[in-house]
Amino acid sequence: MVISGQLPTQEWGRGLGCSQPDRKGGAVYRNHLWLRWPHLESRPLRDGVGVGIREAAADWTPGLQFDHLDSEWLGMPPLPSPRCLFGLGEALNAIYVVGGRELKDRESSLDSVMCYDRLSFKWGESDPMPYEVYGHAVVSHMDLVYVIGGKGSNRKCLNKMCVYDPKKFEWKELAPMQTARSLFGATIHDGRIFVAAGVTDTGLTSSVEVYSITDNKWASFEAFPQERSSLSLVSLAGTLYAIGGFATLETESGELVPTELSDIWRYNEDEKKWEGVLREIAYAAGATFLPVRLNVLRLTKM
After folding, report:
1. What are phi and psi of 205, to 5 degrees?
2. What is the pLDDT of residue 73?
3. What residues contact 44, with CB distance under 8 A and at least 6 apart?
4. 68 and 149 share a domain?
5. Where would one find coiled-coil regions in this protein (predicted)?
6. Do 280 and 210 belong together in one domain?
7. Domain identity same for 79 and 159
């Protein structure tokens, strides 16, 4: 299933369904958010075609792409190297699957990078990362692919950050984050990289940091109101949004349990604080949120 929401109006509804409901991910087109169900990681491409790579069977990792012109889901060649907890980026009309863990018995951490050429419709292997990583964040900006945080082969959280330049075929390490973390939210907003919440070696965190691409420096930012993992950060129409994730909440019996949330927050630039927008998104269990702009007039109505 896919659902869309127009954040300024706080309205949500069903969109064109994916043929395989056990998938998760999203994309954005024309001020609407689009979601796909477990277990999927995805990132939008600049021409509005959303792409997802499934995290499932150990010997088969298919992908789907959504053609917004024909309102259809199209198949992609399966990923040659099945993996989970990877990151997805895009540059120079290609999709990059970065790091992750093998979907095999050993579940080894990976430094390999797979590249999907959207012109030839073929997968190939790109230059490997300088280190193994999983549970990290990947963001794309100006035909560069940034890899942030995650966990290394020793299962310890990393504060590392590096960038891949596909024109030069090289990786470059950048300034590290102030807080080592994994399973956090990240996005490009106002020409800078924002990271929020996540998992540290001692537990959940609510801290937020912002990276200046021009200065190669990290700075602290207003902390999110609650410690969470798997938070989604979205930059849309000049506003920074935080959506969903997992938090540790106390039950009526006093027991602390991990709880999935599907609320929406936005950052108020004038008052310098996070504000609640929507308490719960219908149908959003297990979803990942990303900004894409889709022509809703061409989508099949349900």
Report:
1. -135, 155
2. 74
3. 27, 28, 29, 50, 51, 90, 290, 291, 292
4. yes
5. none
6. yes
7. yes
257: CATH: 2.120.10.80
**Structure tokens of 143?**
């035909």
User: How would you write the pLDDT of the chain (302 residues) with one tens digit per residue?
Assistant: 444 445 444 444 444 444 333 333 443 433 333 333 333 333 333 333 344 444 444 444 567 777 767 777 777 788 888 888 999 999 988 999 999 998 776 778 999 999 998 888 889 999 999 999 999 999 999 999 999 999 999 999 999 999 999 999 999 999 999 999 999 999 999 999 999 999 999 999 999 999 999 999 999 999 999 999 999 999 988 999 999 999 998 888 888 888 888 889 999 999 999 999 888 766 555 555 555 554 545 545 44
C-alpha pair distances (Å), 265 with each of 23, 102, 121, 172, 278 = 24, 34, 38, 33, 7
SS3 203: strand
Strand pairing partners for 145?
140, 164
Cβ–Cβ under 8 Å, residues 62 and 52: no
- The pLDDT value given to residue 178: 97
Backbone Cα Rg of the chain: 18
With a CB cutoff of 8 Å and minimum separation 6, the contacts of 120 are none
What CA–CA distance (Å, rounded) separates 101 from 147? 15
Q: Where are the alpha helices (DSSP H) in the chain?
A: none
**Residue 194 and residue 173: Cα distance in Å, rounded?**
18
pLDDT of residue 70: 72
* Residue linked to tokens 């940091």: 209
Say how many domains are in the chain.
2
Strands 273-278 and 256-268: antiparallel
The token pair that represents 261 in the structure block: 């949330």
Amino acid making up residue 176: P
Q: Is residue 54 within 8 Å of 76, Cβ to Cβ? A: no
